[in-house]
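question for whoever is on the cluster today: can someone run the full assembly for these? two chains, 253 residues total. i dont have access anymore since they changed the login thing
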Amino acid sequence: MQISTRRHDKVTIFDLSGDIDFANSPELRRSVLREIQENRPPRVVINLSKVHYIDSSGVASLVEGLKASRDLGSRFILFGLSTSAREVLQLSRLIKVFQVCDNEEQALAV
Amino acid sequence: MMALYSNPKWLSIVRAAVERLTETLGFQAEHRRSVTRAVDEALTNIVRHSYCNRHDQPITTYFRKAQRKQEGEVQHGLEIILCDRGPVADATKWRGRPLGEIRPGGLGLHLIHDAMDIVEFSRKGDINRLRLVKYLGQASPAA
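^ ran it for u. tokens below:
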């Protein structure tokens, strides 16, 4: 998995690529929580369009990001879910807990 | 059979193997993804809980064709057995968290049970053995 971060005005966008599993989800968790707690962006957007696979530990990292954002009054938005990622969020019944958009434009506009 | 260590870096290799194997056996794409996910989650549980995140412990994974008779028809499938040498696990205490609850963790078991037709845990000697079976959707007439 690779993580890169873009900051625009009041938005931080995380561009993720590759598989997210137990080998690398702690890195995702650290990156997202550090950004939220240190920079407190009003909107955090997670680009999953290049993520083919995400396991339950990856979902847990996203849940932690969501909770940290909510605690600080920020928005936490996902976009570009693969079929596999969408299935995991549906099976865990978390798909409606997250704000999910189709693309970046939508994620920045909602 | 695949013999590996409890290093999470192996997970992607096992996923690739399971994806290819389930494709070869004729599983539909949805089931290829879910079986792969189940094996990945089961291995992660071994690393986390059985071996407490130690990365140098042995895990052996067996794959073989399975079949059963279902309403007079033979149903083919895949049996996967994951073996580890961690301490005795109390399977009765394995619980996933309530679905939809907004807190991290506890999802892996749900994903395993959702994907597989059979999930069985046993202990033989000093080996924990998790047996997972998934049958193909379509049955063929019994011979």
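summary bc i know u wont read the tokens: Chain B has one domain: 2-93+104-141. The domain at 2-93+104-141 of chain B is CATH 3.30.565.10 (Heat Shock Protein 90).
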